[in-house]
Amino acid sequence: MTLIIASAILLLGAGGGGAAWYMSRTQDGAPFQARHEPPVFVNLETFTVNLQSEHGDQHLQTNLTLKMEDSSAADLIKLHMPEVRNRVLLLLSSKAASQINGVEGKKKLASELLEEIKQPSSERSPGHAVQSVLFTSFVIQ
Fold it and tell me: Which pTM does this prediction carry?
């Protein structure tokens, strides 16, 4: 009788352990995370730049928002904000209005800005945690 009870306890323990292990894994074997931290958005101050001359003086005024992986990445990018703003300003001011006027031009610019921001500037550079660059306003005059 004791042998049956011990076997039942062992079987239940093994079954429970196996179930717990299975439930903690996803289909590809990576750990399952029940809660995903929502993305964090970091608003950058307004950028106003002179565009490359084509037909007289033209200016771009835009607001950008960075979509970050999590709040710790957002805090880190805020510490490096002067470097981020410098990179953005240099890239924006290198453009002509005709390059960024249409939807495709804006999408390409957002992609270029993302690549520029992701370039490491130090060993603790937060750029890798930027998921996307979003325009919240965009005016060419």
Answer: 0.71
